[in-house]
């Protein structure tokens, strides 16, 4: 997806979405495709605003409803800061936390296991910069379990992992069982799943938060890497 916009067509507002086929061999031939008649109703300035061309370049516009009918899944790729160009509009920063779930110490399992959940590693997250024109801050949290591919040769499977995000109290200390018993999370990974990495995009008000990465079951051991892009 390379662009979105709205146009007035026959007295109605039409939502358009621009899609690029990276292989450049096949393009959309329906409504609002490169050579469709719908473009005849737009002025030259409107076409220029939409960067409309009839080139066989793999990029095309289509109605949002047609997009929903033809595509089932959209994946959003967030580049790390070192991959962004110097003139990028938004400079992503990243904080990286290495940790381990250790049986009997820091392998507390998910929130379902309230007696041990609080023993999981906890990491501070401070959100300060609101999105432009918004009241919230966007960030991406990605949790990866390390060395599982290597350990798979020894019979180890990928663990089911995820994380929860809590608003941090004023005290700068490891949160206790009572805190989690009486405070709900402000955000969390969509699901616990046995993937090498789970990540999600969030929007929260500025403030201090605590991220708790966990395995689903308690007492499961692994090393992990938690990255937060903001």
Automatic annotation (TrEMBL):
Keywords: Calcium, Hydrolase, Metal-binding, Protease, Repeat, Thiol protease. Belongs to the peptidase C2 family. InterPro entries: C2_III (IPR033883), Calpain_cysteine_protease (IPR022684), Calpain_domain_III (IPR022682), Calpain_III (IPR022683), Calpain_III_sf (IPR036213), Papain-like_cys_pep_sf (IPR038765), Peptidase_C2_calpain_cat (IPR001300). SUPFAM superfamilies: Calpain large subunit, middle domain (domain III), Cysteine proteinases. The keyword Cytoplasm does not apply. Gene3D superfamilies: 2.60.120.380, Cysteine proteinases. The keyword NADP does not apply. Signal peptide: none annotated. This is Calpain catalytic domain-containing protein. The active site is at 21. Residues 1-80 form the Calpain catalytic domain. GO terms for molecular function: calcium-dependent cysteine-type endopeptidase activity; metal ion binding. GO terms for biological process: proteolysis. It comes from the Eukaryota. One of its GO terms (cellular component) is cytoplasm.
